[in-house]
Amino acid sequence: MSQALFAHDALLPSGWAKNVLLEWDAAGTLTAVQADVACPAGIAKANGPLIPAMPNLHSHAFQRAMAGLTEYLARPQDSFWSWRELMYRFAQKLRPEHLHAVARQLYSEMLAAGYGSVCEFHYIHHAPGGQAYANPAELSECLIAAAQDVGIGLTLLPVLYQQGGFGGQAPNAEQARFISSTDWMLDLQVHLRHSHPQHAGLRYGLAPHSLRAVTPGELERARRGLDALDASAPIHIHIAEQEKEVADCLAHSGQRPVQWLLEQQPVDGRWCLVHATHMDAAEVAGLARSGAVAGICATTEANLGDGIFAGVDYLAQGGAWGVGSDSHISVSAVDELRGFEYSQRLRDRRRNALASADQPDLAERLWQEAVAGGARASGRAIAGIAVGQQADWLVLDTEHPNLACRPVHQLLAGLVFCQHGSTPITEVVVAGQTRMTHGRHARSAEFARDYRAALAQLLAA
Known about the structure:
This protein is α/β, with parallel strands linked by helices. It is 36% helix and 19% strand. Strand 15 and strand 16 (433-437) form a beta hairpin.
């Protein structure tokens, strides 16, 4: 049974279109997208212009509960590494019911902020101290249930984490909840595919945590094992986030992290390299050429003092990219896009840094490319309002002060670069179903209540 909607304005992959008729099937897949047509009798009309929902390509859900708790000077040279110590300590307190409550709150916030889907880089697998749960998928299933409760699309990426640093360094005690063998991880993949089969709204992939956390041999074994299950499954990896990581990789292998990965693994469009903050010119060119997606998490990268991604050069070479909210100190698609652009402006001291002669409309370029790259990283059909893609979109309120009186081609600039008070996103549709109206989910009160209860326990002395 099909459904239909008529929009006076809609942002399609080819650009803004007028008088667009959309049809989708019971699974939420678009079966027809026709522009410049009259509205058929009896067809519902959208309450405003439509733009594609944004995929969030990098999330650590549990870190939502610690957002804002590390903003004090822990040591004279505070850095990512000192933040990581605090994060590890916080992670020890987490129980399954906490993760479920935190993830539901977070995922509902993502919907309200313009995200229609999330890639969950999930690395807490075991009980405190590293003891295995009777059900190895205990915490994975908490995330699957949370996404289902909220109605957001999910690409679940169980993380392979095996050592404390390059050269087989032993993990520390606070990493015990993350540690697993390659065989355990592949068994988990099989388990999940049987207990919670993939469907249009759920996809599985794999996340080798980083080159420092997985040996070259085990990275190869894990990839080959994943290929045997699903040769198109997404692979995400943290890489070159910190200068120390680059220096350690050089000392251990004689190569920089992105350089090593591009030479040692068949990096292509199924890969997402998260952060890739510190690359030289050859690595920028190689990553762009590979077709892999660069995962930009501008708010977290700024919060942790990571550095600035080589965005101008990378985009000029046609590199694919998308955005993620990572540690969730901000959960806002527009914050990530604006933060990415502003990082380039601050570095280069010029405006509209990521626009080009061919694509002068900066906000439209950012939104369209982030949607396309995020869809590729998700391994799901969420690449915009087009036939064969999932019916995921946002409805904009053109009466909102940030958008009022603007021609349609300036609406995205108002959304991304004009932020005053409430959001102009009035509805969020995922798989053809309205999940959020005026920033409210039908179960928002329940999610908030359970989140507060979980937070009270997590923050107790």
